[in-house]
Amino acid sequence: MNAVADTFPRLLQEHAALRPGRTAMREKHLGIWQSWTWAEVAQTVEALACGLHELGLRRGEHLAIVGDNRPRLYWCMAAAQCLGAVAVPLYQDAVAAEMAYVLQDAEIRIAVVEDQEQVDKLLELQSQCPALSCILFDDPRGLRNYGHSALRPLDALVASGAAFAAAHPGLLTAEIAQGSPADVAVMLYTSGTTGRPKGVCQTHGSFIAAARGDAGFDHFTPQDELLSYLPMAWVGDHLFSYAMALTVGFCVSCPESGETVSTDLREIGPTFYFAPPRVFENLLTQVTIRMQDAGRFKRALFGFFMGVARRVGARIMDGRAASVSAGDRMLYALGDLLVYGPLRNVLGMSRLRLAYTGGAAIGPDLFDFYRSIGINLKQLYGQTETCVYVCKQPSGDVKLETVGKPLPGVTIRIADNGEVLVRSPGLLSAYYKRPDATAESLDAEGWFHTGDAGYFDADGHLRIIDRAKDVGRLLNGTLFAPQYIENKLKFFPFIKEAVAFGDGRASCCVFLNIDVAAVGDWAERRHLAYGGYTDLAGKPEVYELLGQCVEKVNRDLAADPALGGSQIRRFLVLHKELDPDDDELTRTRKVRRGFVAEKYAILVEALYSELEQQHVQTEVRFEDGRRGVVAADLRLCTAKCFTLAGERAA
Known about the structure:
By secondary structure, the protein is α/β, with parallel strands linked by helices. The chain is built from 22 helices and 29 strands. The strands form eight sheets. It has a five-stranded parallel beta sheet with strand order 4-3-5-6-7, with helices on both faces. Strands 12-13-14-15-16 form a five-stranded mixed beta sheet. The radius of gyration is 26 Å and the shape is globular.
């Protein structure tokens, strides 16, 4: 790449000049894939930028972007950056009240949205956000009879912008020339697990440095392809679908909808893939359910060759085939022909060169499954404040319990209290309008305080234990790491969410959420009738099933000298799913533990009593805005605990 291409608009111009006819983006619309070349993208971005300039968008101002992954929404990001403005993507599934905070905090005047759903939310908020004077929409369906003066279709903006560009040929070039790598390119809001979300200001230079470092580490080229389906407001999507695509020059494809991602993945056959563990869990759950429905011969074939894969697949993946016997290599090759290859094809991963997961711990069985069938799944580590550029597992040196080694240009220090401190080229410039939070997270020596507790193992891999602030102690002094325990529980396909309590208490107790698909399938095979989530979650058979999962976690904890004393003593299965709409989870599905503890205080106290049952009523908010109440009598169960490893030895 040319050294001058140090901002996203300049990178776009460079690709349009170097590879004008190569496909830059695709989108599936009405069942048909539409494609745009780099030259076409650059032309449309110019028209959008000039149209936004006509609307008065100027350097340093903020442009909100709300919707599913759509090419023109990404291009509006680039258009805003051409003018020196800052893109502010919002989570498309956020309710209006959550959007109001970001729109107010970021002082949004112009917003670009995908469709009628998002238009309705923003129109509802106009009285709370008086500065919001213009709403541009991409999809006109359902909006024909909307007569609101703030509304304008993107098609009209493109047309007027193209005419403006023709009349002022040097304007955009001059605007792009004023841009600097130190300019803020995007503002991404944190998930807000413990308070109000903060706007993380990231510059062109930080994201481009992270993208180039990643590209060099794993050898990305313009021939790579990616399916973009994760929320545009999430830092992982911004790194891979936007920053890296513009840095490297590969093609990004957008699915038709969230429901068609699996089908679209198979049709595109990307060369790399990024997903949080829950997505990999859902894919495996679907495979498991399908195999249980298959005939006896297919089940036997699958079971035999998966046994071979679990035994030798990971070693072959890591380039250690020499340690595998000739017989097993032959069996694995046959399994690849009959089972693993077709399975990768069904998953849409037949061309995958790399797959990443991050954002949460991944279960050992899940991790081993994908690697054993020939998918180079690796873990990475980072935050919104670091452009997700801190650690990544090197190919051939993958360890389940770690997040890898520091990436090029990254320095990590472990503080005296165990907190992970980071210096990275991808560090934020500041939190928007929050100098106090900036000073708290980014110290005078340039170290970013991640808030995570961890340590390096003997091979130089970083291992993350928990959030530093969440690590506590039981009354007897035993170390208590709630996220570590929660993740161990969520490794089981039947458990979707878990919330652990114990800091300052005599023992550890947990709330559990069942995975309706997995437990529902399990119940149907046992002819166990149920009438919905609450009914299924309260079945004695389901409690017994989850009790077995808790028992296995306690057995594992008992073998850990540091955490063995924090085995789970009591548990219950919640009568409803934890939901972002009820403020129990963030939009990135992280548990707001403090809020949950306060909301369900009666259940927490019941777990620490000798009660065997507790009645609870909970207000819930439905997708259409209506509110209702879910009530149930919950069972409180005592789990089996085990003697600690040290005590046995003594």
